[in-house]
Amino acid sequence: MPERNLNFDEVINRRNTNSLKYDFAERRGYPEDVLPFWVADMDFKTSSYVEDALIERTRHGIFGYSETGEEYFKIIAGWMKRRHNWEVEPSWLIKTPGVVFALAMAVKAFTEPGDSVLIQKPVYYPFSEVIEDNQRAVVSNDLYLGPDNRYHIDYADFEKKIIENHIKLFLLCNPHNPTGRVFTKDELECLGDICVKHGVLVVSDEIHHDFIFKGEHTVFANVKKEFRKISIICTSASKTFNLASMLISNIFIPDHNIRRAFQKQIDGAGISQLSILGLAATQAAYEKGDEWYDNMHEYVKGNIEYVRNYVKNNLPGIKVINGEGTYLMWINFNGLGLSLKELEHRIIYDAKLWLDSGRIFGKCGEGFQRINVAAPRALIEQAMERIKEGVLHA
User: Fold this and answer.
1) Secondary structure class of 323 (helix, strand, coil)
2) Looking at the whole model, is its pTM more than 0.90?
3) Read out DSSP for 133-154?
4) How confident is the model over 78-87, as a mean pLDDT?
5) Looking at the DSSP assignment, which residues form a beta bridge with residue 35?
6) How confident is the model at residue 1 (pLDDT cuts 50, 70, 90)?
7) Between vectors from CA 188 to CA 186 and to CA 191, what angle results, nearest 5°?
8) Contact present, 221 and 192 (Cβ < 8 Å)
9) What structural domains and CATH numbers belong to the chain?
10) Contacts of 351 (CB under 8 A, 6+ apart)
């Protein structure tokens, strides 16, 4: 049966489906009629092969404790090899209910209360939350915006922060959310060499690795053989195939001792088997979802180009930051000369848009907004028009 869900222009009504994106605006302090582009899920139906796998599994009618066998690993490994040129081994795999959960487990497993953990702001805000909520301290090697309108790493500051704060654990985000940077192999090598030198463990959140629009993604553990000994690589089909509520991620840890300590922390959290539906969806996605993925990827790429061109031609004072990956665009509104309060009022109440304010990604994100463009083009066009009328002309 051929893939059925390739009409990415179809606008699907997600309201009244308990959608976090659409149904909880008022509860979270926003007007009920805002158009949401904040949380990172897609407004596309997933692959029809995933739908079929879930329907078939549901018809069985029994949902007891379930595990994966050799076939599951082979399918996951096949995707990693053909899409990312990374060969993984069965013993490396630990499944968790999500990447953020894995980050939290790593913080608990490899640091003590009061320790500092290194991140790179502006970064996905749960990075700070899993550190602070576990009584650790956040230390940031802030990325800086270069003359090429791209974010870059300050390596001297990176090493300085490690030494001064006795860092044991670094949470890397690559592709980087929200800036869209896809760090090159050379950039990752510089980071990794510093971490090896100082005995720092690297947890690399690579959940957006299938959204590369310029260059290529390099798995951190695959940069140099030595990096295997300090790596926890976090992946999931949840972003790639729009499966966030399935609550399953695939975490790869090549080093036996690190893997054992990580697993012990998961066991202490009371997590054992995961959802049979999540396992079925992930396996079907990676086994049969290539056509859907390739078409979706091309569609999102078109949305990114549309937004870039629209902003350039119609929104003076606003600038799209140059990135190479993710379906999340990082937009700089600082050129408008508005206060943060006025900017956010115009976006929410005049433009009637729900975006992610840059301030939640760190102080260095103030004046920026993150917008999710994995949606039908008609919705993206509507969002751009709302910014033009509600923010520029308010």
Assistant:
1) coil
2) yes
3) TTT-EEEE---EE-TTSSEE--
4) 98
5) 353
6) confident
7) 115
8) no
9) 26-47+290-392 (3.90.1150.10), 62-288 (3.40.640.10)
10) 386, 387, 389, 390, 391, 394
